[in-house]
Amino acid sequence: MSDSCCGGGDSQKKTSQACGSEPAPSNSCCCGSGGAAGAADTPCAWFGRMIQNCLEYATAAHAEGRPIVGIMCEYTPRELIMAAGAVPVCLCGGSADTIPAAETQLPANLCPLIKSTYGYHVQKSNPFLEMADLIVAETTCDGKKKMYELLGQTRPMYVLELPQKADDEDAMTHWLAELQKFRAFLEDRCNTTITDEKLREAMVVMNRERALRRELAELMTADQPPLTGRQLIGLKSSISGLAADFVQYEKALDMLRQKEVPCENGAPVRVLMTGVPMAHGAERVLDLIEEHGGLVVAMDNCTGIKPIEEDVDDRAADPMVALAEKYFHLPCSVLTPNNRRLSLLRDLAGRFRPQCIIDLVWQACLTYDVESDRIKRLAEEELDIPYLKIETDYSPSDSARIAVRVEALFETIRQR
Ligand code: SF4
Ligand code: SF4
């Protein structure tokens, strides 16, 4: 899942507010007020058509003979795939609609992200998955690993073995060996040679993308941020490294840096979201938070800051070592111990000044669920801010209950 991850495309929607009490359309963060014609070429309009843009790009690349490679986790180094001349596309599912199809083969008591992704496979309804020449998976959580086995029965699949003791030196040695094996596999599969030069070129492209997205995320450190968390999460693509996206990122930065944000009263509560990724279409809890008085100033998850915090050293003597280090530093709950997640949260709390932490856990996600106790203690005992855990799935059936809990949290904070 990836940038994180965005399968076959549900709608973006709803309203939310950056500052003050007047909700603004979620896709209007940096589109100005220039009417329909003026807004047609804005970053918001561009990323509002993200799935369509990616589909057009992938279709054209495929027609030119470039392999399409589906990925489903931030541990998969896109740079290697790009250096092989292939196109990495995130396949993570964010739609509730595909879950019933998945449940014909998978247990109901499984993470919705896994089920949604698999449901697209059963229905054959994700055009990127149908186009994929290869799917790259990884040994992260048990649910994903076992789902990949089923997927691999009919789809071309490569599984990276992710060691799980992140601080052990031999774990890094093993991870490096895994990436070298993957490099050789890709060369064979794509009938090409992945030179160090091509790899460094891909690193530069990905570093550029990470830097642009970091700059956008950094805008949320302002006392009155020029966009909402929902708007920020919409400014990215299922396919990384697209030159057309870079143009739009730069345009968005120019527009947002100049944007004036009137905020006389009713300032929203600043929220740091942590936990599971919100694949494209699965942003319901984020919407609820921002519709009920919050502003998500930072998200440490895989659809937020986690994958873009660190770059790859493209000038390192051994680019493979640099690549292995960057990706192995990703603080996912499948690792043990996962101390880097707490370090990242401390850092984000200092920079973004949240008034609370909201921890999103998808139902049946054991690793994030168990880890939530450490996050609660970090928030309450160390950072001295309230903590709220929300465990849910893709169904909107508990939205009213979540809204009540979020409102109660914000009320407590306003009274502090
Ligand atoms: S949360 Fe963990 S398993 Fe999921 S995409 Fe991120 S790194 Fe991969
Ligand atoms: S949210 Fe949890 S259970 Fe779901 S895929 Fe990610 S790590 Fe696995």
Topology readout:
Elements: E1 15-16, E2 24-25, H1 35-39, H2 43-48, H3 50-63, E3 68-71, H4 78-83, E4 87-90, H5 99-102, H6 112-123, H7 127-131, E5 134-138, H8 142-151, E6 157-160, H9 169-190, H10 196-218, H11 229-233, H12 243-258, E7 269-275, H13 284-291, E8 294-299, H14 319-328, H15 339-352, E9 356-362, H16 366-383, E10 387-392, H17 399-415
Parallel strand pairs: 3-4, 3-5, 5-6, 7-8, 7-9, 9-10
Antiparallel strand pairs: 1-2
Helix pairs in contact: 9-14, 10-12, 13-17
One iron/sulfur cluster (SF4) is lined by residues 1, 4, 73-75, 140-141, 277, 302, 330, 332, 334.
Structure description:
This protein has 416 residues and is an alpha/beta fold. It has one domain. The protein is built from 17 helices and ten strands. The longest helix is centred in the middle third of the chain and has 23 residues.
| Helix-strand pattern | EEHHHEHEHHHEHEHHHHEHEHHEHEH
Number of strands: 10
The portion of residues forming beta strands comes to 5-15%
Number of domains: 1
Strand line-up of the largest beta sheet: 4-3-5-6
Total helix count?
Answer: 17
The Rg value, from CA coordinates, equals 20 Å
Largest sheet descriptor: 4 strands, parallel
Bound molecules: iron/sulfur cluster
Secondary-structure-derived class? alpha/beta
Low-confidence segments, ≥5 residues, pLDDT <50? Answer: 1-27, 33-37
- Termini separation comes to 38 Å
